[in-house]
Design a protein that fits this description.
Blueprint (H helix, E strand, L loop, with lengths): L1 E4 L9 H39 L4 E2 H11 L6 E8 L5 E7 L2 E11 L5 E10 L16 E9 L25 H7 L11 E4 L22 H33 L2 E4 L3
Parallel strand pairs: 2-3, 6-8
Antiparallel strand pairs: 1-9, 3-5, 3-7, 4-5, 5-6, 7-8
Helix pairs in contact: 1-4
């Protein structure tokens, strides 16, 4: 009986697989870190929105000063008095509590002759025509309290239909076009919207207080997912390398051969 070492065939080290795994690991860690940064940004944004919405309403003049300085008045409470130009209202296609209909954007003419578009709220689809809700067409001075809203810089998505100006149906809030269709001089236009609060309108329509502040914040889950995938990949690589090393050792162990 003699011990004979059986040489194993030298397998090439998987440098390519290891390199690709390292690149993928770095990408996964990068994605996880990016989501952590997005989480911090989103939490700061939500805190800002909460602080704004819970603050006391300010006169329109104060909100305009903020706009002139920051160009950002989103969700700032505001109060303003004027006269509704009901014959120039614009209709924005929307849903509210599961019903299809329109948000009614009506120019509110101020004492100085300027105008600000007010989202007075929701009306059902069959009440698009103002004649079906004449009680809500308030004449005379009114005071509106609500939230200031930034105008859109452009069409938010290519999948949205174009605004139908002939039928007075808007699918995105194009402030300049809404003003032009309402015969409002751009120089006399307040450069942002106001969403009216839940104060009831005569006759029940429009239904105010339709602003939805519901920003999803799933960045923590995404970060955990990316970091988890990175950890899983690292574990697989380590296990594969350990098994490879153990296999190499086993193949180089001496074997007992019985010679006859």
């Amino acid at each position: 009986m003699s011990d004979v070492a059986i040489p194993a065939k030298s397998a090439r080290f998987p440098w390519i697989t290891l390199s690709l795994s390292a690149i993928l690991f770095v990408i996964l860690i990068g994605l996880g870190t990016w989501q952590v940064e997005r989480l911090q940004w989103k939490e700061a944004l939500l805190a800002t929105i909460a602080a704004r919405t819970h603050s006391a309403p300010q006169p329109l003049a104060e909100i305009e000063k903020i706009w002139a300085q920051d160009h950002d008045v989103e969700y700032r409470p505001v109060t303003v008095t004027g006269r509704l130009l009901n014959d120039r209202e614009r209709h924005f296609f929307a849903t509210y509590e599961g019903y299809s209909g329109y948000f009614i954007y009506t120019p509110l003419q101020l004492d100085d002759g300027r105008a600000v578009f007010v989202n007075r709220g929701f009306v059902p689809y069959d009440q698009k025509n103002a004649s079906t809700r004449q009680q809500g067409e308030v004449a005379g001075p009114v005071t509106v309290t609500g939230l200031a809203r930034n105008p859109l810089a452009g069409k938010p998505s290519s999948i949205l239909p174009d605004n139908d100006l002939v039928k007075n149906i808007y699918f995105w809030k194009d402030l300049s076009v809404m003003a032009a269709q309402s015969s409002i001089n751009p120089e006399q236009l307040v450069p942002f919207f106001i969403d009216a609060d839940k104060t009831p309108n005569p006759g029940g329509f429009p239904i105010g207080g339709v602003t939805i502040i519901d920003l999803p914040n799933s960045h923590l889950q995404y970060a955990v997912t990316w970091y988890g995938l990175a950890a899983t990949l690292l574990a697989i690589v380590i296990i594969s390398m350990v098994r490879r090393r153990q296999g190499d050792k086993a193949e180089t162990q001496p074997s007992d051969l019985t010679s006859r």
